[in-house]
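Example 175.
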Amino acid sequence: MIEFSKEAKAKADQIIGRYPQGKQKSAMLPLLHLAQSEFDGWLSPEVMDYVASLMAVKPIEVYEVATFYSMFNTKPVGKCLLEVCQTSSCWLRGSNEIVDHIRRKLNIEVGETSADGMFTLKTVECLGSCGTAPMLQCGADFHENLTVEKVDALIDELKNKKERSSYLKSLVLNS
Ligand code: FES
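Predicted structure in complex with FE2/S2 (inorganic) cluster:
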């Protein structure tokens, strides 16, 4: 059976403790982010069942949330998850060309992972950075005003990345 590390379990208990008895389900989003960060960047059924057990809710309640939001991955992803915005502003400013460039460069389709396990390409809806379109998110970092040259430089930089991309550092887990 899977379990959080000691540190992550302490963080999970702290998050759950913010809510009154019977309202632990309110901790679901930060717990799923914590779990995704802890378990290789994705939420397997086993991980979702574990999160459900921590909140004392039915697994289906976790599955519903995890499959609704694009920031949660329900299948394995590469170390660097490239999430390219495809909504109006980004589309008008060439996000399709950015996606095509990444597809060709990494030899993958949208939703696939590169052969070396480093990169997964995903298209997502508006990430709230419309004024700096086109943009993509990798973990907690936004990369904006993209050009193919900037994408090439970013991928080269990410190739040496030691840590898996994660949203965790942008979350307020300590409040
Ligand atoms: S349209 Fe791309 S960030 Fe809003």
